[in-house]
Amino acid sequence: MQVLISYHSDYGNTRKMAEAIAAGYRAADARATVVLKLVEMTALDDLVEADVIIFGAPVHMGSMAWPMKKLIDQAGKLWMEGALEGKLGGVFATGGGFGGAGGGVEQTLISLHSNFLQHGMLVVGFPKSLPGYSDGGLQWGPYGRSGNTEGMPQGLSDGSLVASRSYGAHLAETALCLRG
Ligand SMILES: Cc1cc2nc3c(=O)[nH]c(=O)nc-3n(C[C@H](O)[C@H](O)[C@H](O)COP(=O)(O)O)c2cc1C
User: Fold this and answer.
1) Is 121 helix (H, G, I), strand (E, B) or coil?
2) Rounded distance, CA 76 to CA 105, Å?
């Protein structure tokens, strides 16, 4: 199983979630090859070669950071070819969350789902029974709030990282199940 985790991160929060998802995935499927790549370093061939594609982005001004959207738009070529059809997808996001847990994180997660569905991929959500859901979970996938109540950076909660890890394991179990 080839697993690609492609993410954007300026300040390291989204990278921490990516690493926790990778750790959870590897713990549930030791034989999987899990590759972490900055979205800026992700080539279209990386998407084509992966069985499981996981995208993560910080929220910038209410929606996903533009480097992630750039890759998504470039991958329109793959949509023409149907090259990602049938692959498994997962998503995650972080935001400062000033004014509440939202601030655009749900919009980011839903947009990532929408893109995967457009490609004909199977998208895996985040069941509420999994560890970390109450702190770092939304039905779309795990999320992290990295800001404090004054809108200043404070870093992710442990709950977000627990959620990320359990989401990684859930993706691995789902992929193994689908492969039979
Ligand atoms: C240009 C810019 C715009 C941002 N806009 C938002 C926003 O609209 N909503 C929000 O919740 N957080 C916003 N943030 C905060 C980031 O989403 C948050 O700090 C995130 O965890 C950063 O991820 P990173 O550490 O992986 O770069 C913004 C940050 C930057 C740099």
Assistant:
1) coil
2) 23
pLDDT in tens, 117-157: 999 999 999 999 999 999 999 999 999 999 988 888 999 99
CA of 35 to the centre of ligand 1 (A): 24
Span from the CA of 110 to the centroid of ligand 1 (angstroms): 17
Query: Which protein residues touch ligand 1 with a CB less than 6 Å away?
Result: 9-15, 58-62, 94-97, 103-104, 146-147
Please, are residues 72 and 63 in contact by the beta-carbon 8 Å criterion? no
Which residues are registered as beta bridge partners of 141? 138
Distance CA 39, CA 96 (A): 20
Where exactly are the structural domains of the chain?
2-179
Residue 175's H or E segment, with its range, is helix 158-179
Atom 9, ligand 1: which residue's CA is nearest? 103
pLDDT band at 167; cut points 50, 70, 90: very high
Take residue 5 and report the two structure tokens written for it: 């985790």
Q: Indicate the fold that domain 2-179 takes in CATH.
A: Rossmann fold (3.40.50)
